[in-house]
Amino acid sequence: MPVVHVDPIKREDLIQHLKTALSERRDSIEWLLERSVWGTAPTFGIARNLALLLSVGKRALVLDDDIIPQAIAPPLSSTDLRFGTANDRERFLCLAESLNLHAMPLPESPLAMMLSSLGQTLGTLIPRHLAGHGALRGFDGNS
Predict the structure, then answer these.
(1) Do residue 73 and residue 44 come from a single domain?
(2) 0.70 cut: is pTM over it?
């Protein structure tokens, strides 16, 4: 699988090309892709927007800089994983060692596990992996 790095010069060239080719959409392009229009405000979606734009028509796995590619069991979980339930509770762990107590060893790299699902539909993945919260470990990096 090819890995593509887009440096700031290529990024700026792409943005300038888009603003020239789609001048009527200049404001939208700046809002979606340029950090300068955001001032000191956080720009949480800009990198993802650029990655999505560059991956049109391709399968892509976008990794943010704050992901933990390791499955962590929920410390307070007493029920099976279900969609649409309001059983959220929080627990703050002060030390990394406390978090590591809940780490779930994986048979292979979490990244490899995520890549194995790339391009598959939810209809294919859910029956195969939704037996419980343990069955999903590693597929989203946070299970």
Answers:
(1) no
(2) no
